[in-house]
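Quick one, tokens below:
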């Protein structure tokens, strides 16, 4: 169950970042507002256990997942 939640979170983050910068991963276009710059690990504690997410980094802007508020890593962030 925890691995399915990790996969879902990864897909949500990729979709959110793609919408934010205006281009999909590995796609070049002139209308993009930023560029991807790798990933960073982020620990997320839930009641089901601890997940380690690979959060996309952006070159010119910060990115915080919509389901995890800054410095708050718990299931309460999902609600």
């Amino acid at each position: 169950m925890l691995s399915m939640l990790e996969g879902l979170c990864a897909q949500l983050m990729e979709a959110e970042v793609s919408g934010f910068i205006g281009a999909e991963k590995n796609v070049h276009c002139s209308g993009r507002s930023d560029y991807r710059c790798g990933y960073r690990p982020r620990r997320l504690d839930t009641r089901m256990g601890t997940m380690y997410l690979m959060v996309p980094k952006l070159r010119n802007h910060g990115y915080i997942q919509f389901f995890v508020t800054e410095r708050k890593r718990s299931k309460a962030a999902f609600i």
